[in-house]
C-alpha cells in the first residue's frame, strides 16, 4: 500500500473544503464561470437596492442580458434554446441564487415553467411563435396554476375554460404568480369538461390583467402578481394540444423543483462565505471571533450541510442527464436542500450579530427569500409526504 504524505497534497481550499469542484467537467466549470461573470457585472452591484426598493427597474434589459447569456430555457433543445445538460443548468441556478432568489425565480419560471410547458406540451405553431423570443429574453413568460384557494391541491382549481363555438372562454383567478406583472405571455391551467387543460394567453388579450402583489418581505427583487381572467376569449389554437389532466402542470413543476435543488445552495454558499469572512475580521475579546470554538462549530456545521446538499444535487443532476430521475427523487432534493439552506442562513446571521439584519450583507436577504422558496413548488410538508409515500407505499395526502 502506498502511503501519501499529506504535506505533498494541495492545501485545503476553505471555500471548497471537500474539493467538490473535482466532480465537475471543464465545460461545466466554464459555464458556471460565465454566469458568475455576468451576474457580478450586471446584478451584484444593484441587488440589495432592488430588494430594498421592491423591484428591478430595468427588468427587460436584464432579461435580454440573461437571454444573451443563454440561461433562459438553457436545458431545452431547439427553438433558440442552448440545449445544455441538467448539471449545467443546475450550476447556473446555483450562481443565480447566490446573487438572489428572485433572479433564479425569473429564470426558473421563464425556462422550466412557461417555456417548458410550451416546449413539452405545445403545438409546433406555439413553439415557433414563443420559444425563440423567450429564449432571447425578448418575451417574458409566467405560469398560472396556483389559486387563492388551490395551492398544494391543484386539482381543486376553480378557474374554468368553456367552449363557445370554435373558441375557448377562460374565467378565474391565479395567485402568487412570479413574473406576472411584466409577462408578455401566460401559460394558464383551467378546468374544462375534458379535464385540466393548458392555454397560452398573450398578455394583451381582452379580459386578462396581472395586478402586482405588493407589501412582500420576501422575493422583493421578483415581481409577483395575480392573473385575473374575466371572460378571456381565445382561439382553439391557444390550447396546449398535448397536455391533458394534471400530468401537464405537474411535469412543469418537477422541472422547476429540480432547479431549486441547486438554487438554494447558492443562497447557502453566499451566506457561508459572508459569515466566514466576517468571522475572520470581527475582533472581540482581543481576537477574531473565528478563533472561538462556537463560531468554528457553526462554520463547520454549515459547510457540512452545504457539502451534503451539493453532493445530492450533482447526483440528481447526473440521473436527470441519464433520463433516470424520478419525481420523488426531486422531492428529496428540494426538501433537504431548501430546508438546510434556510438553516445555514439563520446560523450565518447569528455569526454576523446585529450586522446580520443589515442589507449591507446578503444574509438576511437570502434568509427572507428562502422562506418563500421553502413554500413554493411544493411545501416542505408536501415533499415530506411524497417521500413518506415512496417509503411506505401508503398515501397520506387524503
UniProtKB/TrEMBL annotation:
Pathway: Amino-acid metabolism; tryptophan metabolism; Amino-acid metabolism; lysine degradation. PROSITE patterns: ACYL_COA_DH_1. Residues 244-391 form the Acyl-CoA dehydrogenase/oxidase C-terminal domain. Keywords: FAD, Flavoprotein, Oxidoreductase, Transit peptide. Its EC number is 1.3.8.6. GO terms for biological process: fatty acid beta-oxidation using acyl-CoA dehydrogenase; fatty-acyl-CoA biosynthetic process. It catalyses: glutaryl-CoA + oxidized [electron-transfer flavoprotein] + 2 H(+) = (2E)-butenoyl-CoA + reduced [electron-transfer flavoprotein] + CO2. It holds the Pfam family Acyl-CoA_dh_1. Residues 25-138 form the Acyl-CoA dehydrogenase/oxidase N-terminal domain. Residues 142-232 form the Acyl-CoA oxidase/dehydrogenase middle domain. One of its GO terms (molecular function) is flavin adenine dinucleotide binding. Its cofactor is FAD. InterPro entries: Acyl-CoA_DH_CS, Acyl-CoA_Oxase/DH_mid-dom, Acyl-CoA_Oxase/DH_mid-dom_sf, AcylCo_DH-like_C, AcylCo_DH/oxidase_C, AcylCoA_DH/ox_N, AcylCoA_DH/ox_N_sf, AcylCoA_DH/oxidase_NM_dom_sf. It is an enzyme of class 1 (oxidoreductase). Belongs to the acyl-CoA dehydrogenase family. This is glutaryl-CoA dehydrogenase (ETF).
